[in-house]
Amino acid sequence: MMNKVTPAMQQFYAAKEEHKDALIFFRMGDFYESFGEDAKTIAKELEITLTTRGKDKDGDKMPLAGIPYHAIDTYLPRLIKKGYKVAICEQLEDPKKAKGIVKRGVVRVVTPGTAMDSSMFTDSSNNYLMALYGEKDEYGISFLDISTGEFLTTQFTDIAPYNRIASEAARMGPSECIMPRSLLVDSDLTERLKELKIIIHEFDGDAFDFERAEKVLSEHFKVSTLEGMGCSELQCAVSSAGAALRYAMDTQMRELSQVQSLNTYFDSEFMVLDAITLRNLEIVRNVRGEGNDSSLIGVLDETKTPMGRRQLQKWLLKPLVSADAINDRLDAVAWLHDNTLVRFDIRAHLSYVKDMERLVGRVMYGNSNARDLVALKKSLEAVPLLLESLRECKDVDLLESIMSQLSSFGELNDLAKLIDSAIVEEPPLSVRDGGMIKDGYNEQLDELFDLSKNGKQWIAKFQQKERERTGIKSMKVGYNKVFGYYLEVTKANIPQVPDDYIRKQTMTNAERFYTPELKERESAILSADEKMTALEYELLCDVNSTVASYSKQLQETAGFIGMLDVMANLAEVAANNNYVRPAITPDCRLLIRDGRHPVVENTVPGGFVPNDTEMDCSENQFQLITGPNMAGKSTYMRQIAMIVIMAQAGSFVPASHASIGIVDRVFTRVGAFDDLASGQSTFMVEMVELANILNNATPKSLVLLDEIGRGTSTYDGYSIAKAVVEYIHNKGRVGVRSLFATHYHQLTDIAGNLKRVRNYHIAVKEDGDDLVFLRKIVPGATDRSYGIHVARIAGVPHAVTTRAKEILEDIENECMISEDDRKGKKKQRSSAKYTQVILFDQDASYGETAPHPVIGELKDMDLNSMTPLEALNRLSQLKTRLLEEGR
User: Would you say the CATH fold of 583-783 matches that of 443-545?
Assistant: First the structure.
């Protein structure tokens, strides 16, 4: 039997029916209430009290949880960050004027990717909504930040395990992703996105229909074709972009006029940094823990503006591959680096610039306040000062372009003057409380202000007069919104109250009264205050409307200021950290003198040891690096990748000299990670990452591999490591620039067979049982792993390391293989005194009849999973090995 519910609860159930996947914040007076299952969830997540009130429609006790309406900025972000959608159901009319039940309705739905309020953002990073759509291995992916108006789309081919999609998502860092059910059921895809901590929501499949998406975009941007946006022929990209915009408009329940353009981008414009590389190199966030203090951006970010911080992150996540474009950035950084006083002035002026992109977004969205306008005014006042500082700049294309663009928006000076004439310097936060508009801006407002001011002066005189008339010195005139003005008298003074006082309210320790004279004056004062507050809000809306009409110029100005901030920042960081300008070359050579790790060099006691690097595509393409753990192999490899990324982003680099041949992709396989929740061991993760590298690296790529094969048995690991070296060296007939760190120092023999492989090792100094890491990379191979030394340094008990040393000596003695024991076979040892057990299986037969390893490899080839070209390449490699062995 259905229980009869109140009209207010009928409104709640209607809102819940319309937004089934959202928590409802239901405005009732001074509180946002939640009911039923919503209340249980909200009470649990926000750690607030759960109570019951009345009964639900089924007759059961109704769970209830609520928060004060003024505290929504505190509580709402906590729910959104946990992935919830929250529908805000507001009172749509003034309760004082409502006839019967107050009308209520959902005014917006807040989701992780469509947040607008400043309270939702913990930093200045973009807050992207990602939309994904695909057909037959072709995918469109779009990113929309409604807080800044930025809107991007691209299209590409991808297949499971969806490395391309995951890499793009990792690079952009969206907080929410929408997709149709056809993709949501693909667990491989959704798991890849969940690994990146992206909240996934299903969205109406019809919104991804190409024709509907195209119509949504065309109508929003008021264009007849999407050709000007570069995506008219990219159906999947258009489908994802249209769905993203539709979702954002549906949740916000309004047009998003701050979104003024859609930019299409392609892989060919930027260096590709996949999700694994971004993680391993810690480009924008720490690999472990929160924050970015040990990341590359943590070192490079000394920007002054939020736009600059966002722009710097984009430059680091999308390094350029055009030498001309890179040099344009480097020219600007170099000029600012050399002109120290100009740089200081620019950075001083930039410190007054606020987050113009989000300020304009709030103005366009309609939730800005007077403080936002003051912040915008101060930002605009910095523009003429920036132009004055740059006036000496000559023949630097990027800086001259910024000057030209900023100069073209001269009307923004008038906009700043308008805001200055209208809004007080320190306005209140609420737009409904008045006190925002300056004296003299509006004649009618000034008259109301005088009336209100005189009324308050009258109240003060009235209080003094009544004290003298009654002899009650403690009497005071007070006010609240419910009872208006009143005379408050303590209980002890009640006998002195005159007969013309009319009782209004009884308090615990006092009584409140009014007189006809006070009541009459109250009406005049409150009328003036009410009219004044309403007029102030109206005037603020007028100023907002004027600001909104300049939104495009304001957004473009914010973008140019962000670019200038990044370049001045990079120049400042270069000067402070002794970075040099890199030379960008069209060849594949990498030449770095005294290279340093930009992050580690700031944390090493006693100073960082720099290292040289020289790579090319003819004789020194593949560096095989050996040496003990903790000696610095990984640091050395990472610093090379970081220097390349910094250079192609347009930054100076930590070295005494750097010449960088353009790199199209950086691949890394370093560190040990596992994913046991999805059934992947450390070794499986290693092999998945390795497969991505081997399948996608090109001759212009840079590959960093650390300890490949260590996650499995010694024999398997060594075999895989050797095969990987050969494969990369021979890939595409010209190979790939690579650095390969390994403990399998027997691999160093391969340099004699592969012409572009060179051996290097990290130098160490032995003094008895002591080991000193010199941190210097030098040519040549090492024949020892020093694992027991490292174990001792790490604090492993002395008994263990002593016993380990004894066991190692026994193994080495057992594995000494004399030449007489190998009659008729190729000599197994070189100049070394012994060969470690790793190379030999004690159960194997070493007689003349033992099958050649090539036969085993042929048997293991899975021809069904190989393309004809891959099979031919593999056969060619096996044939080459046989010929080299003289067979």
Answer: no
The CATH architecture assigned to 583-783 reads: 3-Layer(aba) Sandwich (3.40)
Mean pLDDT lowest among 182-196, 385-399, 413-427, 717-731: 717-731
In the CATH hierarchy, which top-level class contains the domain 124-265?
alpha beta
Of 279, 346, 303, 295, residue with least CA distance to 646: 295
Handedness of CA 261, 266, 270, 273 (dihedral sign): positive
- Which residues, other chains included, contact 804 with Cβ-Cβ below 8 Å and sequence gap of 6+? 788, 791
Answer yes or no: are the C-beta atoms of 114 and 251 closer than 8 Å: yes
Alpha-carbon separation of residue 584 from 210, 311, 330, 501, 618 (angstroms): 42, 22, 10, 89, 19
Q: Which fold has domain 443-545?
A: MutS, DNA mismatch repair protein; Chain A, domain 3 (1.10.1420)
Q: What distance lies between CA 128 and its chain's CA centroid?
A: 9
User: Rounded to 5 degrees, what are φ and ψ at 512?
Assistant: -115, 135
Domain ranges of the chain: 7-110, 124-265, 303-424+546-577, 443-545, 583-783, 853-884
**Joined tokens for residue 630:** 């903790």
- Evaluate the CA torsion angle 372, 378, 383, 384 in order and state its sign: positive
Residue of 628, 570, 160 lying closest to 331 (CA atoms): 570
627 is in an annotated binding site: yes
Do 631 and 764 form a contact (C-beta atoms < 8 A)?
Answer: yes
Question: Do residues 756 and 620 lie in contact, with contact meaning Cβ atoms separated by under 8 Å?
Answer: yes
Closest to 262 (Cα-Cα) out of 224, 233, 220: 220
- Judge whether 549 is annotated as a binding position: no
Phi, psi of 273 (to 5 degrees): -120, 110
pLDDT in tens, 66-97: 999 888 888 999 999 888 999 999 988 877 77
Q: How far is CA 519 from the centre of its chain?
A: 58
Reduced to 3 states, what is the DSSP secondary structure of residue 278? helix
Judging by DSSP bridges, how do beta strands 476-480 and 484-490 pair with one another?
antiparallel
SS3 720: helix
Say whether 325 counts as a known binding-site residue. no
User: How far is it, in rounded angstroms, from Cα 385 to Cα 57?
Assistant: 65
Q: Which residues contact 880 (CB under 8 A, 6 or more apart)?
A: none
Cα separation, 519 vs 515, in Å, equals: 6
Q: Nearest to residue 619, comparing CAs of 757, 781, 777, 780?
A: 757
Q: Does domain 7-110 have CATH number 3.40.1170.10?
A: yes
Q: What is the mean pLDDT of the chain?
A: 86
| Tokens standing for residue 168 | 């793009």
Helix, strand, coil share (%) of the chain residues, nearest 5: 50, 20, 35
Rg (CA), the chain: 35
In this structure, the number of other CB atoms found within 10 A of the CB of residue 776 comes to: 16
Task: Convert the pLDDT of each residue in 142-177 to its tens digit.
Answer: 999 999 999 999 999 999 889 899 999 999 999 999
**Are 319 and 271 spatial neighbours (Cβ–Cβ below 8 Å)?**
yes
Strand partners, 151: 144
To 10 degrees, the CA torsion angle through 216, 220, 224, 230? -80
Q: What is the pLDDT of residues 361-372, one digit of tens each?
A: 999 998 899 999
Given phi > 0 = left and psi -120 to 50 = alpha, else beta, which region is 522?
A: alpha
pTM flag (> 0.70)? yes
Asked if residue 243 lies in contact with residue 217, where contact means CB atoms within 8 angstroms, the answer is: no
List beta partners, residue 202.
179
> Cα–Cα distances in Å, from 594 out to 427, 611, 740?
54, 5, 20
> Is 632 flagged in the annotation as binding?
yes
* Beta partners for residue 61, in sequence order: 55
Residue 801 CA, chain-centre distance (Å), reads 45
pLDDT for the residue numbered 778: 81
**Residue 539 to residue 533: CA distance in whole angstroms:** 10
Is 303-424+546-577 a domain of CATH 1.10.1420.10?
yes
Q: Determine if residue 562 is labeled as part of a ligand binding site.
A: no
